[in-house]
Specification:
Radius of gyration: 23 Å
Number of strands: 4
Structural class: mainly alpha
Number of helices: 22
Largest sheet: 4 strands, mixed
Strand order of the largest sheet: 2-1-3-4
Order of helices and strands: HHHHHHHHHHHHHHHHHHHHEHEHEE
Helix content: 55-70%
Oligomer: single chain
């Protein structure tokens, strides 16, 4: 069976104007998301969205320092360095230009989403998948997961952009032999690992194995991992100094990050993980059963294998992270898009076009219908955990100058952010009695438990013997 790049011919318009096609698709993808940029940052994983926003506010108010990640809601040391806060710094610059918090946060992510789409297109061209480009780009831009998370206040697409850029620069280093591409690949690989090492490794390790004929990626991968590890050690040194952050150092969250044996054998974990992947269009991969090795150009096959390797590595190494946090699937969304393109291309080469078109339409409709509860929050402002109601109540029951402790929301600073209060988001693993005296003295304490439907109750401060 012949599966050359000619087996799925683009339209004449697409052949003559591929750049216009790409620009139009990306422009549409951006425009449909613009009306959602002012929504409060609470529709999904509010803890992560608002933690990122708090760091951006810190930069906007006190100046940018990439060696600090401001988060006053965890008490001393007042920062929580997990990733290099480049995204937060760029969003702070946008705020300094007069853009409000929510559009600055969401707009920065949307900009990197669009840039990552451009890099993905360049990668497809480098690996001889030009004819599959419209399908891959559509799967990347308009999957339910992309609709939800491409305009959220998260760093995910910033790291994806750097990781894909590393692969592209590595490929061009191999094809051109020019040292500048090699140096760019190393720089982007380090940047990807500094921003999110879990995203970097799932792309760079398969890229080292499948992406090239030479050993250039070995040095790219090693320098990236080394930079990521150094940053983790740097962050651990800061987190270890705080009463509420010591439990978030790397040694303390190994099981959380990689999953225990029991977690890996838990069918609930895998069911949730598959649910998250459904938003990426996992149903569309049915067409991969038609893939045959014969006739597939070597370069395209390398990119297919690289993409499959990225997905497999992510799910084998980090199953619990991908199950607990829906946004983690953003890291492998380009891989899914590439395989969706390969799937449809192969199916068209093996089955009548009308049949494949009909099945594809059914699968797309089913995917969006099944995942409606997740992607719909991108277009209809949502507050599923009643963070805004809790914030309103705290605002009414306290004064702007009060030091406020919020109980029942774990590390999430959403209530404090939208109540415009300084204070501490008390972790679920810590009791009020266990807090240092300096965090409690004079504080107003509110129980805004997630199970209370947004209601907050003021608590009395615990008695301190001899104080």
């Amino acid at each position: 069976m012949e599966l050359s790049d000619r087996s799925m011919r683009p339209t004449a318009w697409a052949r003559s104007n591929p750049s216009w096609l790409v620009a139009a698709m990306i422009a549409i993808g951006v425009v449909i998301r613009l009306p959602t940029l002012a929504f409060p940052l609470v529709e999904a994983h509010a803890f992560r969205q608002t933690q990122t926003a708090m760091a951006t506010l810190g930069y906007q108010q006190n100046g940018i320092d990439l060696l600090t990640t401001p988060l006053p809601t965890i008490g001393p040391p007042g920062q929580l360095p997990f990733e290099l806060p480049l995204y937060q710094a760029i969003a702070a610059i946008a705020m300094n230009l007069g853009i409000p918090l929510e559009p600055a946060m969401r707009g920065t992510n949307l900009a990197f989403f669009a840039i990552s789409a451009v890099v993905l297109v360049a990668l497809l061209r480098e690996y001889g998948m030009r004819s599959a480009m419209p399908v891959v780009l559509a799967a990347y831009l308009f999957s339910p997961l992309a609709i939800e998370w491409s305009r959220a206040s998260t760093i995910e697409y910033t790291a994806v952009t750097a990781a894909l850029g590393t692969l592209l620069a590595t490929r061009r280093a191999e094809m051109s032999g020019q040292a500048r591409w090699w140096m760019l690949a190393i720089a982007l690989g380090m940047l990807a690992a500094l921003m999110k090492i879990t995203t970097a490794v799932v792309w760079l390790i398969p890229g080292m194995v499948f992406g090239t004929r030479r050993r250039i990626p070995v040095s790219v991968c090693l320098t990236a991992v080394a930079a990521g590890v150094l940053w983790i050690r740097f962050g651990d040194g800061i987190k270890a100094t705080g009463a509420l952050t010591a439990g978030l150092t790397s040694p303390a969250i190994v099981d959380y990050g990689f999953g225990s044996i029991a977690d890996r054998l838990d069918p609930v974990i895998w069911a949730i993980l598959v649910w998250h992947l459904t938003s990426l269009g996992i149903l569309a991969l049915i067409g991969l059963v038609f893939v045959r090795r014969a006739g597939v150009p070597e370069d395209a096959r390398r990119l297919w294998l690289l993409s499959g390797g990225a997905i497999a590595l992510a799910l084998i190494v980090f199953p619990t992270l991908y199950a607990r946090h829906a946004y983690y699937a953003v890291a492998i969304s380009p891989a899914f898009a590439i395989l969706v393109g390969a799937s449809l291309k192969s199916a068209l080469a093996a089955r009548p076009q009308g049949y494949v078109t009909t099945v594809t339409a059914i699968l797309v409709a089913a995917t969006f219908a099944i995942t409606f509860p997740t992607w719909s929050v991108a277009f209809f402002a949502a507050d599923p955990d009643h963070e805004l109601e809790s914030a309103r109540q705290v605002d009414e029951m306290s004064q702007p100058t009060d030091h406020v402790l919020v109980v029942g929301r774990d590390y999430s600073p959403a209530v404090l952010l939208y109540a415009h209060r300084n204070g501490i988001a008390v972790p679920a693993s810590v009791g009020i009695d266990d807090l240092p005296a300096d965090l409690i003295d004079g504080a107003r304490i509110f129980d805004c438990g997630i199970d209370r439907g947004g209601d907050c109750v003021e608590l009395s401060a615990p008695a301190r013997g001899g104080s």
